[in-house]
Amino acid sequence: MNPIMNAKNFKNSFLMFTIFSATATMAQHKYFNTPPEVSPMLMQPEMTEIWEPLIKVITPAKTLGNAPSDAIILFDGKNLAQWVSQKDINKPAGWKIVDQDYMEVVPGSGAIQTKMTFGDCQLHLEWSAPDIVLDGGQARGNSGVFFQNRYELQILDSYNNRTYSNGQAGSIYKDHPPLVNVVKTPSEWNAYDVIYTAPRFKADGKIDAPARITVFLNGVLVQNNTTINGLTLYTGLHNYPASHGDDVISLQDHDSKNQFRNIWIRKL
Question: Of all helices (H) and strands (E), which one includes residue 3?
Fold first, then answer.
């Protein structure tokens, strides 16, 4: 082999190795783990403006508490077309409509549930306990709103009516007491405004993120982004026994002639 050519090849190889090493070294030092002391570009107001997507416009109700334009009307006093009997979902809801204004529980007829299913939602519901007080404790104006047919927001005549704290109106039943008691007299209407976030489950069916709920009762905060610890149970600790998706909203028949009106919902 020509020694002169061999020397040239060696020099070329060495040069290429040196260039490659220098390039690799520069690439390694191109990015830093800490920000520079002086920004290479001055911030401009436009850099933090979000223009897309365009925000949907809805029309608010003229009267506070009534449904906005994108709400699903579940009950407006006219009929029970959005509800069925929970005992037999092929049958209409067994409660009665009074004065084309509100519906009233028919004790013994059973719970009613929506035809539609829901997950994350905003719910508005107005309710009243029976005008005539016959009982006390849990027997007085008892009902409940069940989200996804599992997690109960308690309804109870809690006006001058002592019971266990996580069983009074505004509680997540047998789970979390309300922050305050702001229930009106039995002859007046109460209003729930609820933001509900459904639970999320892992692929294996185990809980990933529990349900959460924020509740205003008569305009006052009673549940503040509260974690729901699981399926509502009368006896035992609440838990998430199985994964599920969207499900119905149900109203409880607890042998009390509770009344309901102006129910609407928005899917979130």
Answer: helix 3-28
Rounded to the nearest angstrom, the gap between the alpha carbon of residue 213 and the centroid of all alpha carbons in its chain is 5
pTM of this prediction? 0.84
Integer Cα distance of 169 and 176 in angstroms: 11
| Amino acid present at 194 | V
pLDDT band of residue 41 (cuts 50, 70, 90) is confident
Q: How far apart are CA 20 and CA 198, in angstroms?
A: 55
- pLDDT attached to residue 17: 47
Q: Which residues are within 8 A (CB) of 114 and not within 5 positions of it... i.e. 6 or more apart?
A: 74, 82, 83, 84, 248, 249, 250
pLDDT over 50 at 229, yes or no:
yes
Tell me the sheet residues that pair with 251. 112, 145
**Tokens of residue 256, six digits:** 């009390």
SS3 31: coil
pLDDT, position 7: 47
Domains of the chain: 72-267 (2.60.120.560)
